[in-house]
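Title: Comparing notes on inverse folding

I've been comparing how different people in this forum approach sequence design from structure. To keep things fair, I'm posting one structure and asking everyone to reply with a full sequence. Here's the target:
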């Protein structure tokens, strides 16, 4: 998280400030209203995102700001067009849900594109990551205190009948997915900051302990894998010996054990000791695979899983199954094999920036967690946040000589366009 030289492109400063405002608005508005079931909460976030998109277009038209591109833009554009194709062909079991899915994917595309444009500067990327780190820590503290003092009230104020609530997250596994994206930030800071290493180690430990207290089995497992991955990647990137790394790792482990002892881990261990802990999820996945095989080319329509699923149900426990509890299987069932391949391509394209930044490893952790849960289906705001973070990670790794190209504004001559593209590699990441 060491600051690097400022962005030498003064014409990009206005939109960069909008990008910072976008990060703040997304963290505060999207996350703090996750528990709200009314449509206005999601609509307010969507309106804010598209307002920022219009702001970027205005800045481009007026100043000719740089346009940064990455293949993920194409993947997300195709994902947004796919539900429109399903609607045009009449291949959806639930028109309204597929229309909403199209809007969600277009919004995710807009979020990724905006983040890609706004966070090319390391100084602004650093501020965004710091904001996210401390917001994640505050969320972990608040969620833990709320769980033990008022589990039936969100923010100690708003009553709810839901179980497993962690802060504004109404589902403890989605809370775990959020922590999966911010834990690597704390771990990297603990390794990087010599004087305050213990502070960031404590922050990471609080996050880990909160997920264990929240009883997320897959979340705890993914956090363990992420911790090992961050240590291995940092060792390779910084060329450190294990002897140099063990103090930060040991302090984090000690803090985590202490916080887990305070918060407790009994309920999580009881879940892990079940005879068949993944029984229901496995049956839902089998049904989703059967759905995908029945409609391999078009699927049942994005967002239409709950409507099409009853015909393929393998059990009936008297409860309404709203999602497949496996995003990958649900993508195949709703969108067919082509959409599943789009999501697979998305995951592959995220590997390089995630590994290169180290702190972006949480992006892959969430996709791994998606094998047993639904993080992109029920709460649209989490998907917007995820692709904002993906844009942040990709922007940090874009080679300027290849991707940074300033397109001419409408008032500029196209004859000089070639001179507007950066060919030097002096801007390091």
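Reply #1:
Here's my take.
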């Amino acid at each position: 998280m060491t600051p690097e030289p400022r962005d030498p492109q003064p014409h990009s400063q206005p939109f960069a400030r909008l990008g910072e405002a976008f990060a703040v608005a997304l963290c505060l508005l999207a996350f703090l209203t996750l528990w709200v079931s009314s449509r206005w909460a999601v609509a307010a976030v969507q309106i804010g995102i598209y307002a920022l998109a219009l702001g970027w277009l205005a800045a481009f038209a007026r100043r000719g700001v740089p346009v940064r591109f990455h293949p993920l833009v194409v993947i997300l554009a195709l994902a947004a067009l796919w539900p429109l194709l399903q609607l045009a062909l009449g291949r959806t079991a639930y028109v309204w849900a597929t229309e909403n899915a199209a809007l969600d994917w277009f919004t995710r595309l807009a979020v990724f594109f905006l983040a890609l444009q706004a966070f090319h500067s390391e100084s602004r990327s650093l501020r965004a990551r710091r904001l996210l780190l401390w917001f994640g820590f505050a969320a972990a503290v608040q969620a833990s205190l709320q769980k033990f003092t008022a589990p039936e009230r969100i923010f100690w104020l708003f009553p709810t009948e839901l179980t497993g609530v962690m802060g504004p997250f109404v589902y403890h596994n989605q809370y775990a997915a959020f922590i999966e994206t911010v834990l690597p930030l704390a771990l990297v800071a603990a390794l990087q900051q010599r004087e305050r290493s213990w502070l960031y180690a404590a922050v990471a430990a609080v996050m880990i302990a909160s997920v264990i207290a929240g009883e997320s089995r897959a979340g705890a497992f993914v956090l363990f894998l992420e911790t090992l991955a961050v240590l291995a990647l940092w060792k390779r990137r910084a060329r450190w010996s294990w002897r140099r790394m063990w103090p930060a790792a040991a302090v984090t482990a000690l803090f985590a054990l202490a916080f887990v002892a305070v918060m407790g881990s009994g309920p999580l261990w009881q879940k892990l000791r079940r005879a068949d802990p993944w029984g229901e999820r496995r049956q839902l996945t089998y049904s989703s695979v059967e759905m995908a095989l029945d409609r391999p080319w078009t699927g049942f329509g994005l967002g239409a899983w709950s409507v099409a699923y009853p015909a393929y149900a393998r059990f009936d426990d008297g409860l309404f199954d709203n999602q497949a509890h496996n995003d990958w299987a649900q993508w195949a069932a709703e969108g067919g094999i082509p959409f599943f391949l789009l999501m697979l391509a998305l995951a592959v394209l995220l590997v390089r920036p995630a590994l290169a930044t180290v702190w972006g490893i949480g992006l892959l952790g969430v996709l791994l967690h998606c094998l047993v849960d639904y993080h992109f289906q029920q709460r649209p705001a989490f998907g917007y946040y995820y692709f904002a973070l993906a844009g942040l990670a990709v922007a940090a790794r874009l080679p300027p000589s290849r991707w940074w190209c300033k397109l001419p504004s409408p008032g500029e001559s196209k004859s000089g366009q070639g001179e507007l593209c950066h060919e030097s590699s002096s801007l390091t990441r």
